[in-house]
Each structure stands twice: as C-alpha cells, then as structure tokens.
Request: fold
Amino acid sequence: MHGLGASANDFADMPRLISRPGTRWIFPNAPMRRVTLNNGLRMPSWFDIRFLGAGAGESERECPVEAQESAELIASLMEEEHARGIPYNRIALIGFSQGGAMSLYLGCRFPERIAGMVCLSGYLIFHKVHMEACHDSNRTTPVLICHGSRDDMVPLSSAQRTAEFLSDNGWSVDFENYPMFHEVCMEEIRRVEAFFSEIFD
Reply:
C-alpha cells in the first residue's frame, strides 16, 4: 500500500527487488480524497490527515471513517485471494507511510490469522481504541517496522512509540531504523525480504 498522494506504481519494482518465486503481489490504489493537511486538495489517500503532531485527540487528526473504508477495500482484496485458494495465513500486508499505517490498522483487526505486517515509514493510528478494536486472531502476528532516522515527515519517534506499544501489548515486533529520510533504501528492502523468509518459509 502506497503513501499519501502516490499510487500503486510506486512499488511496482518490489517483485524484481524481492525474489520470491510463486508470490503474488497486489498493489492497490487508495481512493481519491480531499486531504485537509494539503489544503483540501484531492489526491490518493487512505484517510484524511487534518494536522501533524499531537492535538486535541487522535480521532481528530486522522479520519476514522475513511481509515475503516480503506480497510474494507483492502480486506475485500484479501478475501478475493482467499477465494482463489490462498490461505489467509499465507498473506502479508505491507505499506509505506499512510500505507504502513493501514497495514497495522487492518492487520491487527482482521478476523483471520495472517502471516505478518510490515510498516515502512509509518505509524499506528488510533492508539486509544486499538486494543479493543483488534482481533484475537492477529494478537501475536509478527510485525516488521522500518523507519528512517532522518525522516522529516513522520518522525522516528512515532515509529518507536508504535513499536513499543505493540511490543508491550503482546505483538512480536522487529524494529529497524536506517540513516534515510521519508523514503525506502535497499538495505531496508533486504530486511523485508528476510522477514518474508521468516514468516513464509
């Protein structure tokens, strides 16, 4: 799942960079939405972001209705794959930035056990309701969180808090940080490849 304002094409090279014969990759596009943070401009977005940093309440920063709508869109793709014969426990969610937030949001709430979740340069949304909203099926699902130590859009501290929160609440979390900005590097991609080997092989 791509980041805010991007598209499915952003990660089209992943099958070439991560060699896993027999793997089916799916790159969904986020719905077109108005994004308050970007002056109300319409762009591909998994959910509205109204401002950065801490505010009156996290439900006021990101739109919970749109996050749930996007989760249902992605879940329908997972259900289609399951109908094709793919067990849910052979499906992993991976996303960048907003897409990374969606990976954790849906992965923890999904009612069937999945293989793993990967959050690249993202963070967990709606901490306050997370535990009551998540499903028992994925309370111990492996999680990989990767982040840039120089990220000037999503601070490293947001990823660190996410990793600590999930780890403290029972998830198996591997946290990695790299000397990069809000982007992806080859060392990080190699770590994702190794994570896939750990959860699938």
Notes: The first helix runs from residue 14 to 17. The chain has a mean pLDDT of 94.
